[in-house]
Amino acid sequence: MKIATDRFRKDNDAFPKPEQIRVADAENIDEITRTKVNLETSLIPWKELLRFFASGTVIAVSIELDMVDVAVQISEDNKAQVEQWLLAGKVAPVSDELAKAWLETDVSLWAVVVKPWILVQLSKPAIL
Going along 10-105, which residue ranges are E strands? Predict the structure, then answer.
């Protein structure tokens, strides 16, 4: 019995060579990353994040920004964009004062993990 090994060769047409990857494929990869991050985002009570806050790994994202965009830029190590947000105060470690206020008001936040960070953001007010 002969096995058709050519179906499993790495140079088979089913496996594109790097030079064959098109810009559209790169855009598709970006969209897949964005969708994945979006699916990993959830609403969580602040009190459940206190131990992470204590370790300094919780980052607040301004409601002016799309937290999914911020998470994608951090995951892609886009230092220039992240630095701009940091300098503008739109992304920053959660302060002690803010943590205390959130605890006292029993707030829930949107959160997503971008190792080693946990990004959090207040819910945007509903527009009626």
Answer: 42-45, 58-61, 91-93
